[in-house]
Amino acid sequence: MKPTVTFEPQKIEPKWQKYWEEQGLFKAMEGDLSQKMDPGFCRDDTQKFYLLEMFPYPSGRIHMGHVRNYTIGDVVARFLRMRGKNVLHPMGWDAFGMPAENAAIKNKTHPAKWTKENIATMRDQLKRMGFSYDWDREVATCDPEYYRWEQQIFIEMFEKGLAYKKQSSVNWCESCQTVLANEQVEQGRCWRCENSVIQRPLEQWFLKITAYAEELLQETYRLPGWPERVLTMQRDWIGKSIGANARFQVEGSGEEIEIFTTRPDTLYGVTFLSLAAEHPLVDRLIKDPNKKQEIQKFREKVRSINHEKRMSEEYEKEGIPLGVNVIHPLTSEKVPLFVANFVLMEYGTGAVMAVPAHDQRDFDFAKKYGLPIKEVIVPPVGAIHELHPQSAYVDPGIMIHSSQFDGMDSEAAKTAIVAHLEKLNKGKSKTTYKLRDWGISRQRYWGTPIPILYCDKCGAVPEKIENLPVKLPLDVEFTGEGGSPLKKIESFMHAKCPTCNGPARRETDTMDTFMESSWYFLRYCSPKFDQGPFEKKAAEYWMPVDQYIGGIEHAVLHLLYSRFFTKVLRDLGYISISEPFKNLLTQGMVIKDGAKMSKSKGNVVDPEYLIEKYGADTARLFCLFASPPEKDLDWNDAAVEGAFRFLKRVWQLVTVGPHGNYEDEKFWLHKTIKRVTEDLERFQFNTAIAALMEFYNFLSEKEKVSQESIEHFVLLISPFTPHFAEELWSLLGKKESLLKESWPTYDPAALKLDKVTVVVQINGKLRGKAELSPEVTQEEVLEVIKTDAKIQGYIEGKQVVKTIFVPGKLLNIVVK
């Protein structure tokens, strides 16, 4: 290749991208690499490193969030390859989902066509950024070759009792006759027709993630490579609670209501019970037609409000008295029963006990409806407490009005009251989790078909494994109205029962797209394998992912589902590991004008514009230098221009010189190698680049610069600006890619200076310097400056208040 003479990114970058691809420099292999690769490019097979960024949704074009995320991963991948690691760095597409359907409706196209066109565009854009992906391992989750294995896993989960169907509430648009995702509901109205959306019960498929709740929780304490913030979010989502169940008998009926509480110490303070509006007991208890009509109107109102709003602190709590009492299990007192809008049927038992004196939500409700407030816990002796306060008392204290438990510490009373419940056979201790089973049914088209058939004789029957995949038909008319178009395709809907060979109809729900992203990292290990989801030997070699990189917005659901899926696959015999991701980095957002970049805010910077004007390397350098990866990045046009100017200056230094040999460069060279290496190991890319800038400033002031310093500078900057570095490397006369070079190492001996410059300040102002030993003490510096008349002139006749000494750098003498 003939090198360019001037720094022209638009010519340099395509040239090196083509070279890398032709040479296959990013291909990952497991096994004996020395038999498969150029001996001069042999990596240590025992040091595998699986590096993965969260794959993108093919929405049309990459944005600066993609650029930042994938640049971070690419720097690490290039750095590790040069350190001899066998790196797997793949890329693919989270290709199913609602945005494709919305675009299909809006643009009168097909989701498959829209998705494939976007993949082609985004693949080309990612290649233009110079990212070191092994494109031979590319996967798209909408391909039948991918989702057939997902269907097989689903069937195995169904057979193990881990997949099941039950009734649950969904967002329903009566006008469009379809289920809506939460994202399609805008202020309680359908995004398309703007009619009101209601909550409607519907049979849906669930995965039994709750069967793994305790293991998922406990493993969060064995993931030291994860940010504590993410682990805390997962623990809160799992929401382990230790408490008790208690049973309240319905007066004049054989019915009973079971509640769960984490505060058994407050049981004696119960003054009413609340049921979810959808609770089936309500219909059995209420006979009065007028009351039934009142409750039905209340239910309709509740259904129009989404769950998140119903549970928020700001949402007004409302209810209806049922005119029915329940019997308190410990006091035998009559307690009124309500339906309330803040009680959800799918959480717990759909019934909650209310203790207004010791729960703020219950307190507000009781005040609104004139219900009793009974204190059963008061602060410890000496604490200030107002009788009949204007808010609930929720802290521990001393028991009162609680029968034989009066005077006890409330924490101790929890155990004692549960034991009393068990003795009376009115309840028992219980551990519960906030985590609920994962609802995977989506009443939409663009997703993986659920491989279940319904036979009047055999019931719900899974498709035969040999008949997979159950392909998503593409010859559909897609309008987005009237439910899933799958119901209108006779060839899809009607099939033979896999058990009795009789007539059957297919499930028309498709799977939640979190399903595809919960195991894609395993498919990358052997994407062409056609005997199962992945080759076990390859997965055992590469997994777990050594470093996973992605946004904090996926801290709970995607990561939790991936952990769950990994444990299920372990128990199904596919793999032996229990956790998918060893280390996790959650990068911050890209901010412009004080807000996250988005089309709706009109503050988007197009990566294509940056590439055309400055080149991909400038965009990479800016993203890495502007902020530590875990922090938000504030966009700055001037800083982008500054990154470009820095590269031009380095180009001038390397290509023009002047060059020569100077011994005093060694300290700076080895200091820079040490700093850049250690900063890369810690993912502190901004400080690594700062070290390179400092080294450049040092070199630029020299009359001549050594070839050793120049070559090492190019190697050190190469992970950040790979095209730029490759071109300079060739201009230096190198015949092979610098990716085949080893990462520079520093010599500790070269970091030991014979002399250092110690700055002397008086009251913070520079008054002198001294060339001294690096190990010089404060006392020795004071002795030396006694011979400096100028410095002594600032001290004489004044009182020394204190001295501040930074070894090897500074002595500040404070006087008055």
Distance between the termini: 69 Å
- What composes the largest sheet? 7 strands, mixed
Helix content: 25-40%
- Stretches with pLDDT under 50, minimum 5 residues: 32-45
Instruction: Please tell me the overall pLDDT.
Output: 91
Q: Which word captures the global form?
A: globular
Beta strand %: 15-25%
Structural class: alpha+beta
Count, helices: 25
Q: Would you report the number of β strands? A: 32
> What is the gyration radius calculated from CA atoms?
34 Å
Describe what you observe in this structure:
With 816 residues, the chain is α+β, with helices and mostly antiparallel strands. Helix content is 35%, strand content 20%. The strands form 9 sheets. Strands 8, 9, 10, 11, 12, 13 and 16 form a 7-stranded mixed sheet that branches. Strands 2-1-24-25 form a 4-stranded parallel sheet, covered by helices on one side. α3 packs across α4 (111-128) and α17 (607-613) crosses α18 (616-625). The radius of gyration is 34 Å and the shape is globular. The N and C termini lie far apart (69 Å). The relative contact order is 0.12. Mean pLDDT is 91; it is low at 32-45.
